[in-house]
User: What shape does this take?
Amino acid sequence: MEFYNREKEIKELLNTQKRSLENAQMTVITGRRRIGKTQLLLKATEGQPTLYFFVARKAESFLCQDFTQEIKDKLGIPILGEVNSFWELFKFLMELSKTQSFNLIMDEFQEFFNIAPSVYSDIQHYWDVNKDQSKMNLLLSGSVHSLMHKIFQNAKEPLFGRATALLRVKPFETSVLKEILADHSPDYTSEDLLALYTFTGGVAKYVQLLMDSGSYTLKAMLNYIIREDSTFIPEGKNMLIEEFGKEYANYFTILSAIARGENTRAKIEAVVNREIGGYLTKLEHDYGLISKVTPIFSKVETKNVRYTLEDNFLSFWFRFIYKYSYMVEVGGYEQLKEIIVRDYPTFSGKILERYFRAQYIEQMRFTRIGGYWDRKGENEIDMVAVNELGKIADIIEIKRNAGNINLDKLREKGIHFMKATGELSDYKVTYKALSMNDM
Assistant: This one.
């Protein structure tokens, strides 16, 4: 699959590279695993003198051998003698960058925590001493959210406050997914587009795997994902087990409960059978995996809270692959596909709500977007989009099938919502039905 999108990110990275010609720049690039950070960095530094250091989990001396060879190959500079400590290499590069400008990409930067934690203090020292005279464009990329957050945002860590720019790489927007699918399958259907969004959430590597394999339809995608030796089967565990460590089983149980619709603390605790306040806080703030959502216009102190797993792939993985892992263990891929096909309409219906919310956000026509539900669960609205400047609002019902939407009932819900919140009385309110026909 060719390189898509990322114009905004590339422009930002090119501007940073220009600034580095005056004095050194340190950019931290984060984003979940498989999101496309490495390809973005390589694309943004094309045609420029660039060192690419991949921080593999092996002995520091072996890493230094790899990095020394990279310096020789890319900059044509021989390094005499054997270098076994990273600080020696970094000191050398900081000195070199005073007379020669170049990019230094360090990928999976958080891995130094497992290899040689003192590296962070060494980098801080040589960076602070040399950055004003240096022309280095330092690009530090990592995919373990908790560790990257600790390295750069914990005031007790040596690199706290050193970054000159922060860049978070996000999934492809819905418009880009449509462009990609149209390029590969011009006659795609809304069902195909929803499947691509449901299974990948716009994560670049997942999209690439499906497109490169010719999996353009719901059926083809499902056949590719649920099969022996599929890279998707172990992906959730591979992605999160390092984040959670020895407590991963508790976190997995919580995420699995949220993925199948147990979205309040009381419901989750009923499944987990333990107090989970601390776990939810860490999942939201330390790991960035869940969001705590409240009804639109609700007060800050409201207890009417729901939890959602925003990552589409992980929602799918926990809902089906993790839940039915016993089937995978005995090779029951066909049985698992039958279960997914059976439950897919309901599951993808909730993802469709997420799709339209993302689409509304991308259009940038509204200042506030959210859902509404009362404490009793008797009155619920899928989406309310508000433009506070233009005094307009859309109240929206979302269903896979347009025939299942009753606009008269939606208006009744809207009246109840406006009365309960005391909002939108002076707005022009439009009631809308959105279905797969509108994707």
Notes: The longest strand covers residues 380-387. The two ends are 23 Å apart (CA to CA). The chain has a mean pLDDT of 94.
